[in-house]
Design goal:
The chain is α/β, with parallel strands linked by helices. It is built from seven helices and six strands, in the order E-H-E-H-E-H-E-H-E-E-H-H-H. Helix 3 links the parallel strand 3 and strand 4.
């Protein structure tokens, strides 16, 4: 039986925020001095970075709300990866708020392959942490952010040096989709709400 040796990506497109971009780029370059890291923070930047032949190019998204077009995903040699600031039970946006609103006792961060449909790709890893009973959404977001950074640091050596696809856990995403529209609705304080519901909404969405 022949064994196919893994290669390293020649270039990595890092889709993330302006604050995170220089720090995560440095983390990746530390793993491989020959790796070209192109950090982009918005859809036009991603489109420009993904022009031409994408052979040997890897795409990694870190806590970005930019939706990657299916055409870019299909043009890549291998899977693109996303670090999502919530567990598989909470795909979508404003997920920490929805977890607090639901009274969840556990939250987490998910590393998954990217697919044309948002937060639906095969799951690679999930790191969980407990939610204190009196936590507000900002408390959960802070821990989620720190957890995502640590997960990125743990996977940086692989992301920078090995283009072999990561194995899947077999975990599944929830059918629920947390949306901005629903979060905005739950932010509103209406006259007929109970005091308990008002406090619940405030803790979850501010």
């Amino acid at each position: 039986m022949s064994v196919v040796a893994s290669r390293m990506p020649s270039k990595l497109i890092l889709l993330t925020g302006e604050v995170e971009a220089p720090h995560l780029s440095k983390m990746l370059r530390k793993q491989s001095s020959s790796l070209i890291v192109e950090a982009v923070t918005n859809a036009p930047g991603l489109s420009a970075a993904a022009q031409g032949d994408l052979a040997g190019v890897r795409l990694v998204s870190f806590l970005s709300d930019v939706i990657v077009p299916a055409a870019i995903l299909s043009a890549l040699d291998g899977p693109a990866y996303n670090f999502h600031p919530g567990p598989p039970a909470y795909p979508g946006s404003f997920v920490a708020g929805f977890a607090v609103y639901d009274g969840a006792t556990e939250f987490g961060v998910t590393l998954h392959e990217m697919a044309p449909s948002v937060d639906s790709g095969s799951i690679i890893d999930v790191w969980h942490f407990p939610i204190p009973e009196d936590a507000k959404f900002l408390d959960v977001e802070r821990v989620s952010y720190a957890t995502a950074l640590q997960m990125f640091a743990d996977y940086a050596p692989y992301l920078a040096t090995d283009d072999t696809p990561l194995p899947h856990t077999g975990e599944r995403w929830s059918d629920r989709q947390c949306t901005r529209a629903e979060a905005e609705r739950l932010k509103r304080i209406e006259a007929d709400l109970s005091e308990e519901e008002i406090v619940r909404r405030y803790r979850a969405f501010g």
